[in-house]
Amino acid sequence: MRDIRVAKPYARALYEAALEQDALASIATDVDKLRDLIEQSEELAQLIHSPVLSPEFKSETFQQLFADAMQPLTINFFKLLASKQRERYLIAVMDIFSEIVDAAAGRIVAKVTTAVPITSEQAEQLTAQLSAYSGKQVRLETTTDAQIQGGFIVQLDDTVFDASVASQLQRLKQQLAKG
């Protein structure tokens, strides 16, 4: 909960600065790339979250790593977070920033969990169906979880569609137990 309270003003400030500099699309791309990199690189995650490393070291390292790959605003934003010793909230800031961008564009995010990765054709069909259902443009965030055994689980705002094999088996087990 504290992460959200701390992250919201920073996410809003990044959004407004990106709008002001007419760089919203490129900053949103930077945010997505950075989120993916942090998820894939344990070293980068440790750099960001380490309480031992100084804010100056983190800022310099971030500058060296991303100077050619990201917008100056993105790099300066990270430096600001580091100088305020708020870099550990970077993931929360990026998540809220993405939510703000999606809301402003009239998009909603559907979180889809499947037992195996979905194909691009399946993703397109699911996106079209969820867009028709919600009346808004839908952006998918997909994850895989073998424990659901098959089918899918979709979370669209406050609505959850659970068509997983694991849930169906659980319901069947409950019905059999009742007699």
Summarize the entry for a quick read.
With 179 residues, the chain is an alpha+beta fold. The protein has 8 helices and 4 strands; from the N terminus they run ααααααβαβββα.
What does this structure look like?
- This protein is α+β, with helices and mostly antiparallel strands.
- It has two domains: 101 residues, N-terminal domain of the delta subunit of the F1F0-ATP synthase (Peroxidase, domain 1); 72 residues, 3-Layer(aba) Sandwich (Glutaredoxin), CATH 3.40.30.
- It is 63% helix and 14% strand.
- It is built from eight helices and four strands.
- Strands 2-1-3-4 form a four-stranded mixed β-sheet, with helices on both faces.
- β1, α7 and β2 form a beta-alpha-beta unit.
- α1 packs antiparallel against α5 and α1 crosses α6.
- It is elongated, with a radius of gyration of 20 Å.
- The model has no long low-confidence stretch (mean pLDDT 91).
